[in-house]
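Data availability (excerpt). The following record was deposited with the supplementary files.
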Amino acid sequence: MKKIVATIVALTALIGFAGCTSAADKANKNLSKAAENFEVPRRIVGVNGITDNVLFSVEGFCSYTIKSGAYEVICKEPDGTVERTTMAKSDNVTMVVTQMGGVKVDLFRSRVIFRPETIIPNFDMSTSATQ
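Predicted structure:
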């Protein structure tokens, strides 16, 4: 019986400690969430690795993804509109993303974002009578 209790205690402790992350890891995850919600100002620059020429530069409250064959940058404009810039990816172009300022994020608690407006989709109706 003592072995079973000791095993359960050891497994519980192991599982509990496995969920612990460093403050930097937690801050990184929360910072990424803030950036994906257009809360972090960024400068995104593409540089040709052969000629050292700047190919593109995008600044603002931007989110980016690197998909096969392309960089996609989505920025929220001051008037609330959203713009997307898509750039082709090649083997000699380096994309540099620089955060333009500090953002306060929690170092110890995960950030959870709940958006009730995403439950009900936004519909546009198009009928033959409106054409």
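Summary of structural features: The mean pLDDT is 75.
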